[in-house]
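Task 17 of the worksheet. Students: predict the tertiary structure of the chain below and write it out as structure tokens. Keep your answer in the requested format; marks are given for formatting as well as content.
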Amino acid sequence: MTSQSNEQSGPIRTERHGDVLVIISDSPPVNALGAAVRDGIAASVQQAVADSSIAAIVVRCEGRTFFAGADISEFGKPLQGVPLPTLVDMIEASPTPVVAAIHGTALGGGCEVALGCHYRVAVPSATLGTPEVKLGLLPGAGGTQRLPRVVGIKNALDMIVLGNPIPAKAAADAGLIDRIVGEESLEADAIAFAREVAGKRPIPRVRDRDVAPDPEAVEAFRKTHGRKLRGFDAPEACIACVAAAGEKPFEDGIAFEREQFMTLMNGTQSAAQRHIFFAERQAAKIDGVDPATPLRAVNRVGVIGAGTMGGGIAMNFLSAGVPVTIVEMQQEALDRGTGIMRRNYEASAAKGRLPAGAPDKAMALLTPTLSLDDLADCDLIIEAVYEDMGVKKDIFTRLDAIAKPGAILASNTSYLNIDEIAAVTKRPGDVLGMHFFSPANVMKLLEVVRGAQTAPDVLATVMALAKKIRKVAVVAGVCDGFIGNRMLMPRQVEANKLLMEGATPEQIDRVHVAFGMPMGPFQMADLAGVDIGWHRDPARIENIRDALAAEGRWGQKKGAGFYDYDEKRNPTPSPRVAEIIDAFRAKEGTTPRPIGDEEIVARTLYTMVNEGALILEEGMAQRASDIDVVWVYGYGWPVYRGGPMFWAQSEGVDKVVAGLERYGFPVAKGLKTGEAFK
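Model answer:
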């Protein structure tokens, strides 16, 4: 017999099922473990323990998920209510057995609550994990000490240090789940399981388990993942805590975990990573557009160009189940492009990143063609040809006559003026920019460029569509290079000047890599191709890049660029490049001088911040945090530095301004006044 209890504590309610009390969280959207939820659970557990007629307790959640983590909006604020570690300890100390009934995701604090419970059951589709490391933290409610005691040191390292959730079956195999239950009968099955274990004594508590130290697993983990984790503080703290679980008594391990957690919480890296977490969500909001704006239907997408970029763009939509018509001018180019797409899908499937049959399923949605006329039934058409305004204007003029009324017309331009492109059509309100980053099927960033006449529903539709294809979208205004590439320009200009003044490519790149960038400006040039944008006239040598291109030093693809490369593309400083640089210095009468790392930082990174402030002043970005999102997701800015605008604040704006002034740069007004960061 079921009866609703009269006890209700905010988002928590209880239901009595005979001798089993079910504690239910109903706190949309993800049952985050905020103060009201924690207090309600604590009160309900105390209620059950005080009632001798209750033989077991089940904890479950309404909605689409079990507790999906802590409420990170509380971080950095005065503590309210029962602390999460105290709640987990209280659940574990209960003399009445507690069963966690898991569906959706049990992440972070949710996984820690489950570990505090004496038993765990889950539906097959559930996932469990401890992703706190992705916010620069560690599981701070006993997770680093309890999880190794359940799944072992090796598995705990994978789950805690990498932060990747695991499915219910893998959790069951590891001992984290006691029983997989019915997808549609979670509550009933959990109650039945609770009755099975109600009389068993002693009640199993994770803290009472032992786990053997495994220094070999710890060392092997560091060796395997060291490069990926370079520069981050949280992974090393996580490793130390997991290792401590095998080396220290439980209470000593908990004390060590708490110490490490507070150090991370009060550090700049976690603040930066939490900033990006919120900034990504804020970027989806469009200034001046009602969130309730009706969206246009996008049931078929057209892509013009089947090269590297066009093919990658098409794959985003195919992977999301959206049919694509892709157009090329020549059959050979079309076959080559679609062949590469299929091989990319098959390679992902071979690595286990896609289920069997996924490549065929995706490619079945693709319609290759040599005729622009076949785009007539598309709801969104994306032009992805090379950066030439004349070519793009010609395409949009033709599209204007072909595309159906209401179709959205987009250009994948990285620099060109969207308003100028839109002006050749009779429907400028339907035109905008969609700047994908290469490789387009991998990189998460999408700059959505709002033209002067872009209709609100067009912008809203594309921003919503970006989420469907798993992109992080940022709205940009019309200016040369938009947000990301515009900020890249001063960095490249200053890097080139520094070469002429006495720095070497390897010194400049070393400073950027030490900062946390995946590569420096000259390494990036070699990867992208030194010949990109080259005028192709070997007799016209106006700068160092021209000289390299004229000699066939086009970068990694030629085995030589700013660096020399071996057969595995490992770079070494090039004596020939040093000769070319010296020749240019001599030609311009420049005497090389020693250049320090601090000057490189000021002239290549502070200038980016300054350009970001100008972008904000001109309204080309909606907010400073959008700029940070662009650079973290599009250019590899280290997330633990929070993006260029956040980093400037953590460095000290006065320091940045002084550095710019020291080297003679005019400082943006918004940077001086701090308006750029509001």
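Marker's comment: The CA atoms of residues 400 and 427 lie 7 Å apart. The longest strand covers residues 2-9.
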